[in-house]
Amino acid sequence: MAPGVSGYDLRCPSHKCKIGGVGGVTMRVAVVGGGVVGLAVAWRLAAAGDQVTVYDPAPGSGATGVAAGMLAPVGESRFGEEPMHRLLLAGADRWPAFAAALTEATGHDLGYRDEGTLLVALTDDDLRTVARLADFHRRAGLTVEPLRAADLREREPLLAPRVRGGAFVAQDRQVDPRRLAVALRIAAEKAGAAFVGDPVTRLSDVDGADATVVAAGCGSAVLVPGLPVRPVKGQVLRLRATGDAPPLRHVLRGHAANRSVYVVPRRDGEIVVGATEEERGTDVQVTAGGVLDLLRPAVDLVPGLAEYALVETAAGSRPGTPDNAPIVGRLRAGVLVATGHYRDGVLLAPITADAVAAMVRGEAPPDEFRPFGPDRFPGVST
Amino acid sequence: MAPGVSGYDLRCPSHKCKIGGVGGVTMRVAVVGGGVVGLAVAWRLAAAGDQVTVYDPAPGSGATGVAAGMLAPVGESRFGEEPMHRLLLAGADRWPAFAAALTEATGHDLGYRDEGTLLVALTDDDLRTVARLADFHRRAGLTVEPLRAADLREREPLLAPRVRGGAFVAQDRQVDPRRLAVALRIAAEKAGAAFVGDPVTRLSDVDGADATVVAAGCGSAVLVPGLPVRPVKGQVLRLRATGDAPPLRHVLRGHAANRSVYVVPRRDGEIVVGATEEERGTDVQVTAGGVLDLLRPAVDLVPGLAEYALVETAAGSRPGTPDNAPIVGRLRAGVLVATGHYRDGVLLAPITADAVAAMVRGEAPPDEFRPFGPDRFPGVST
User: Fold this and answer.
1) Residue ranges of the FAD dependent oxidoreductase domain (chains A, B) (predicted)?
2) Which of B310, B311, B312, B313 to mutate: most A Cβ within 10 Å?
3) From CA A65, how far away is CA A69, in angstroms rounded?
4) How confident is the model over B69-127, as pLDDT tens digits?
5) For residue A136, how far is the Cα from the chain centroid?
6) Alpha carbon separation from B2 to A2, A51, A215, B15 (Å, rounded)
7) Is B146 helix (H, G, I), strand (E, B) or coil?
8) Which residues of B touch A297 (CB under 8 A)?
């Protein structure tokens, strides 16, 4: 990477002199799990000169494969959790340089877009929800522009006439997680990382590493007894314009009769509609109710979506934790965890990679991770 | 087939002595189109001793593959069309013997069930629709048992508590069209019919037949210039119970806030939810709006369906005609048509096969077909 082009330095920010390359310390690192977090860690370490092996029978096929890729650091589910906000904001800050560096390293289009998102309210009740959310964005230091219904529809003519109002969040961004996973794997391989398709059922299956990073999402609980990671099912739809349907311009974070839904248009014409949050069941089965819960508010907010082709229905399991914050830290000598990212795996992948890169060498991760080590949960086997 | 077992005689009912077998007239018949109508015709003729060749690159893959297979002769879309009623009732009468004969000929389970269906109304408005429909059944000579909400829910405990009422139609039946198509093909082949996978783009592609039967559904208009057959798109869903979800017992013909939907449980646990009727577009693309229009009333009527897996979404084109009645008759010497069955292809397949079997020999079809020849439309190329 040409210095200064992207501003994203793949070496550990605080210890550049110590890691990789000529005169640096080269580590053998096993990364168990090839989702977006594991892949970002692998690229980060391999680019710094470490010998990295990623273990995953199907990289990118877990939560990554069904994620929408909204890079929105402030969500309504996070009201009042200050440490988590700081982490999400810091994670979001990493993205522009990370995306630029990855694009440059691979030549791949990540579907990265930074036009901001629209918060949209269908009813008066929803308008109150959006107002609270907008206020929350402001307190987090983000710029939010309130929009009346007419202004909203001027920006996004496909919105339903009965939409009551909303707001514009300029700093929100998006990336296509499937493209991201492909690019990360290519970048990691280019930097020398190896990929092993054998499943890892015990950490002892991994031989000869100086450090093992458990980044196996929901599967992490099997590898680390006591790790409180549970699957939270999410269903997601992919639509595609048929004929000469006009394109949707903005990412929408919609509220329709107290149901929330996001509608994420990709540049290639695909629209992702997500996502349910279901605590029950460990299956990844698409259900009639899940699809209905997504289509109803999406079509209420954007009636023209009814004409779009429904090209994919999918379900996946997000790795949830008791506080729905990630678990990133040292478990014992030679073993780190980077999991439990719940809905924020894509947003937090770059900063998690930085944290793991530091910790592999026994250094402290970025401050924002301090509250999120595995030691906050009793009973985790170390 | 053992005489008397099914009561369904595969020879032409009115001219048994003349057709097939020892001393009979053996015809070479080309059947263009291997949907449920073409396959029934092929079996009928082959079993009578004719040399039958079916032309279809993918038998059973058109409207047949997405049909629900309700055998309900009286539907709300048919109010006031007396000749069509007579045909549908006569078609339904053929089914018990036809199903028994086909099952016996092949040993295949057709998914044939004769428990009757429930008409179900969600709102007061819907209740008026159901009352009109029940009255219409009675005038057609069918037995309809009105049911109050409590009675309905006793018969079908999965119905929503807010269902207002309905009725039971004892004579309605169902068959699984996919199983039916497989069985018909096997039966036709056992009886000596040949299948050719080459597409037929002109009738002159078919050589050496004494008679050609155009049973190509929506594709018939290409083969017979001027034949007024248009595609009417239908979308349909397939659900399947997950875990220990209780099974739905009855076929439901539901009315929910002025939307109609049918919910057809198969014995193997599959539930078919259908069907949209869309005049616009010739595509067979599943759309967000189509799926929503089916899931919303289905889940409103049977809330437990929300937990069912959505295992398939599909769309197909029914062959509609200006009066939405079939076009069955002689086009010119050696060429017959049997198409335009719209929503009634499965119900009318057996009686259509009888009609074609008669007409192949220049005999009159069953009386009920008299109003439905191609000569009722000016401009059909004969």
Assistant:
1) 28-359
2) B310
3) 10
4) 999 998 766 656 789 999 999 999 999 999 999 999 999 999 999 989 999 999 999 99
5) 21
6) 85, 76, 67, 20
7) strand
8) none
String of b and e for B237-251 (b: at least 16 CB within 10 Å)?
bbbbbeeebeebebb
E strand or H helix at B259, and its extent? strand B259-265
Q: Which amino acid is at B281?
A: G
The residue type found at A109 is D
**Residue range B177-190, pLDDT digits in tens:** 999 999 999 999 99
Token pair in block for residue A196? 């092993």
CB A285 within 8 A of CB A231: no
The Cα-based distances of B178 to A110, A354, B69, B105, B181 in angstroms read: 42, 55, 9, 17, 5
Dist CA A379 CA B9 (whole Å)? 75
Question: Is some CB atom of chain B closer than 8 A to the CB atom of A292?
Answer: yes
- Segments making up each domain of chain A, as ranges: 22-109+175-227+322-376, 117-170+231-320
β-strand partners of A317: A233
Residues B22-109+175-227+322-376: name the CATH superfamily: FAD/NAD(P)-binding domain (3.50.50.60)
Please give the helix or strand (H or E) that residue A127 lies within, else none: helix A124-139
pLDDT digits (tens, 9 = 90+) for B236-257: 999 999 877 788 989 999 999 9
Q: Name the CATH code of domain A117-170+231-320 (choices 3.30.9.10, 3.30.1130.10, 3.40.350.10, 3.40.190.100).
A: 3.30.9.10
A287 neighbors A235 (Cβ within 8 angstroms):
yes
Instruction: Kindly report the backbone phi and psi dihedral angles of residue A200, in degrees, each rounded to the nearest multiple of 5, phi listed first.
Output: -105, 115
Give the separation between CA A76 and CA A70, rounded to whole angstroms.
14
Contact B92, B73 (CB under 8 A): yes
A127 closest CA partner among A152, A95, A100 = A152
Q: Let me know: does A38 contact A347? Beta carbons within 8 Å.
A: no
d(CA A115, CA A113): 6
Select from A273, A306, A313 the Cβ nearest to the Cβ of B310.
Answer: A313
Residue A316, Cα to own-chain centre: how many angstroms?
13
Strands B270-274 and B230-240: antiparallel
3-state secondary structure at position B148 = strand
Q: Given B281, B290, B306, which is nearest A288 (Cβ)?
A: B306
Q: Give the Cβ contact number of residue A86 at 10 Å.
A: 18
Angle at A298 between CA A294 and CA A303, to 5 degrees: 140
Residues 197-256 on A with a CB inside 8 Å of B are 237, 239, 242-243
Cβ distance B295 to A292 less than 8 Å, yes or no, reads yes
Cα separation, A360 vs A48, in Å, equals: 12
CB pairs under 8 A between A and B: 79
Q: Which residues of B touch A308 (CB under 8 A)?
A: 287-288
Residue in chain B closest to A308 (alpha carbons) equals: B287
- In this complex, is the C-beta atom of A160 within 8 Å of any C-beta atom belonging to chain B? no
Q: Is A305 on the interface with B (CB under 8 A)?
A: yes
The first and second tokens of residue A211, run together, are 């450090």
- Contact assignment for B288 to A296 by CB distance below 8 Å: no
- 3-state secondary structure at position B115: coil
pLDDT tens-place string over residues A21-75: 434 678 999 999 999 999 999 999 999 999 999 999 999 999 999 999 999 998 7
Q: How far apart are CA A21 and CA B70, in angstroms?
A: 71
* DSSP three-state, residue B330: strand
CA–CA separation, B271 and B254 (whole Å): 14
User: What's the pTM?
Assistant: 0.89
